[in-house]
Amino acid sequence: MYRLAATAPTMGAVLYAVGHTAEIIRRAMQLGRVRVVGWLVLAVALVATIVFLVRSHLTLAGIVAAVTLALVGAVIVDLRKRIADLTRTTNLLAASVEDMRTEAAAAAAAQQVTQPPAPTSPAQGTKKPVALSRATRESLIRQIGWNTREQLRDLEAFAYLNAKVTPRALMPALGRWAINTRSMARLADLLAETRPHTVLELGGGASTIWMGYLVEGSGGRIVSVDHSAEFIEFTRADVTRHSLQETVETRHAPLAPLSTAPDSPDWYDTAAFADLSAVDLLVVDGPPGTTGPRARQPALPALWDRLAPGAHIVLDDMHRDEEKATVDEWSQRFNLTVIDPGTTGIAILRAP
User: Fold this and answer.
1) CA 295 to centroid of chain Cα atoms
2) DSSP 3-state assignment of 145?
3) Measured between alpha carbons, how far is 214 from 209 in angstroms, rounded to an integer?
4) Is the peptide bond before 117 cis (omega within 30 degrees of 0)?
5) 312/283 Cα distance (integer angstroms)
6) Are the C-beta atoms of 287 and 255 separated by less than 8 Å?
7) pLDDT, tens digit (0-9, with 9 covering 90-100), for 235-284
8) Fewer Cβ close by (within 10 Å): the C or N end of the chain?
9) Is 172 helix (H, G, I), strand (E, B) or coil?
């Protein structure tokens, strides 16, 4: 008993070191805590087995060896999954590179200027294509390089996201009209950090499904609102396909004047929010900019009383000047803290 008590501080120090090392490796390699700790425990078990064998503690060595074999099996399963993920990402990268080659060839062909054939004798033939100018070639190379970097960054973000969810059906594509991949990865981190109970999304779609998976395990609830009846049906079908009905609720809210004033902007019918309160996260990705100037500016004034204290507000499409002006206005009017001004495409704000 005395020896056990004497070794307790040492055991505590070892456990602390293992936990601290696990956290360092997790942050460096962007891995889950459970995975890193599992690997470290396996390493410790292997070392302990060797030590017990050397000191002729055969019983303890046998017990630890059995544990080690079980951990080895778990690590093999984990590695096979990671290899499959890596193979899938590599295939996506190869397909993207091939697409870029096709786009480059098409762009080069479009940039060439062909002289019309001379209306004389057939012996003269036609003029040869004029070669691209140096400036045109350099501009084309820069554009291809930029596209390549962007696609690689999207693939990196997709691999990061893919490790966080286990989808039950084919996931909807991100980008283009939907939130981009890097913005979705940043939003996934925010959901993991804040673990919101109620998420209100204005303008649903692909992000609705991704967020549904991300909050499913923490008991969160997502209410996704859209002004288009046709689009909300598409989103509702995706929710059913992924069996997320217990987590995601979709609502149709057609655009209507916010007030009777002549210059009142059109925004979502506020009846769709009548039963909502204590919203922890507000994601503003609608209405579309085509519905009117500064179409998303009314969101926070209209929903401010329905937010929980310390709620987070996310605004997409921060590459547009209207959204930047909206963030500035919201920040001053509601005394918001700007956590992220839009480095990945979404601004993240926090209410007092």
Assistant:
1) 24
2) helix
3) 9
4) no
5) 8
6) yes
7) 999 999 999 999 999 999 999 998 888 888 899 999 999 999 999 999 99
8) N
9) coil
Of 241, 205, 189, 199, nearest in space to 219 by CA: 199
What is the per-residue pLDDT across 300-309, written as a single tens digit (0 to 9) for each?
999 999 999 9
Q: Which residues contact 26 (CB under 8 A, 6 or more apart)?
A: 32, 33, 35, 36
How far, in Å, CA of 293 to CA of 22, rounded?
A: 50
Report angle CA 201, 203, 208 to the nearest 5 degrees.
Answer: 60
Residue 222 β-bridge partners: 199, 248
Q: Is 103 helix (H, G, I), strand (E, B) or coil?
A: helix
Main-chain dihedrals φ then ψ at residue 314, nearest 5 degrees: -120, 130
- Identify each DSSP E strand in the chain by its residue range: 198-202, 221-226, 248-252, 255-257, 266-268, 279-284, 307-315, 337-340, 347-350
Residue 213 · residue 246 · CB < 8 Å: no
Residue 231 has pLDDT above 80, yes or no: yes
Lowest mean pLDDT among 13-17, 139-143, 262-266, 330-334: 13-17
Asked if 202 and 180 touch (Cβ cutoff 8 Å), the reply is no
Other Cβ atoms within 10 Å of 63 Cβ, number:
14
Exposure pattern of 271-304 as b/e (b: 16+ CB <10 Å)? ebbeeeeebbbbbbbbbeeeeeeebbbbbbeebe
Binned at pLDDT 50, 70 and 90, residue 193 comes out as very high
